[in-house]
# Entry
Amino acid sequence: DAGVTQSPTHLIKTRGQHVTLRCSPISGHKSVSWYQQVLGQGPQFIFQYYEKEERGRGNFPDRFSARQFPNYSSELNVNALLLGDSALYLCASSLIGRNTEAFFGQGTRLTVV
Amino acid sequence: GNSVTQMEGPVTLSEEAFLTINCTYTATGYPSLFWYVQYPGEGLQLLLKATKADDKGSNKGFEATYRKETTSFHLEKGSVQVSDSAVYYCALKEVVDSNYQLIWGAGTKLIIKP
# Structure
């Protein structure tokens, strides 16, 4: 079975540009969450989507947005990139519920120059 | 609000040593607790979990017990190997605004020397 897949794996962008990151969840998982992991730190929650609706948002500026499609895949968009947006962006999918584990993709390494 | 505090790393041990990584939490309700591991160059993966007080999660020789009275979920292993070198994250999952959300600790880097 395919796990959570993210694309691209790496990319380099210039300050001020826009970026779109993509995530395909495990089949049957309707919840997708996005995290930012800056080098040396733990994951920081950005968004959660369930059944195509935003269910949670972390403390990130409005430059960050996301959406979930009918097939439960998801996109994370970041506008007006800043140097500080350089990080590993992780996508996780899960079944909904308190006890369910999150399955993570390998992440997209974004470098802003 | 909810939070997770882990012991700072890096933690450096010799092979076959006993490991403890401390994790304490604050939560308003009754969270589930998780340990995730991130090996070098890889993504996060679940190591073990516990969903209620006094539950013990275990996997690959690692154990952690959900202690409600001390709000702790310390990770232990009796004899570590070089292959255990990784970053370990403690996390809790609780309802926040009708949404199940994972709250993460900062991570503890473990280095095992042969």
Q: What stands out?
A: Residues 11 and 100 of chain B are 31 Å apart (CA to CA). Chain B has no helices and twelve strands. The radius of gyration of chain B is 14 Å. Chain B has a mean pLDDT of 92.
